[in-house]
Amino acid sequence: AMLDDFKGMSGKLSISVASTASYITPHLLAVFCQRHPETKVSLSVTNRENVLHRLTHNETDMVIMGRPPDGLDLDATPFMENRLAIIAPIDHPLAHEQDIPLSRLAEETFLVREQGSGTRITTERFFAERGIRLTTGTEMSTNEAIKQAVQAGMGLGILSLNTVSLELETRRLTVLDVQNFPIVRHWYVVHRKGKRLSTAGQAFKDFLLEDVKL
Ligand code: PGA
Fold it and tell me: Of the four listed, 17, 102, 140, 182, which is most buried by Cβ atoms within 10 Å?
């Protein structure tokens, strides 16, 4: 308990995020750190599997990720939407079509994230539930690589809208208007069940749950 108290007073906060959450977390931290300038934050960006490892081994105060698996004794609370959309180059033949049927996607090639990515797991489940088999092209382990490959015409991507705001604004990429899209997920703030959060940790969690729009 003494160690926890000391940690709280020193105002240190260690956060780990799954790679896609690295697009939103700095914006959240910017506001939080302005309100709590005494807090020193360290942010580690890694994949979903490592994030879960750190959590269960108590190596991080808290984590921001997509919905974690059940059964790990975690406390997970959603605080923000995470929409997945079909991303295409702006000159794609489907770019100006509306209400594109899901089945039409079977004719396209998709660039996919690596095994263990939350984006990938969600996408695979979504199409499997609807009995649609996608043709997958190259597998890439970052959102950035997929964005570049989509621009270069290698295929379509299914990405969190959080990752492409700049490219949509500058018209390097576009979102296809496909039925049943976007897939709406959420970002969760997660820590071990029963963990006694430091003062800074509790303040950050309160900030996410009270001040960030779900
Ligand atoms: P990612 O997304 O693993 O695809 O980067 C984060 C998550 O869904 O947990």
Answer: 17
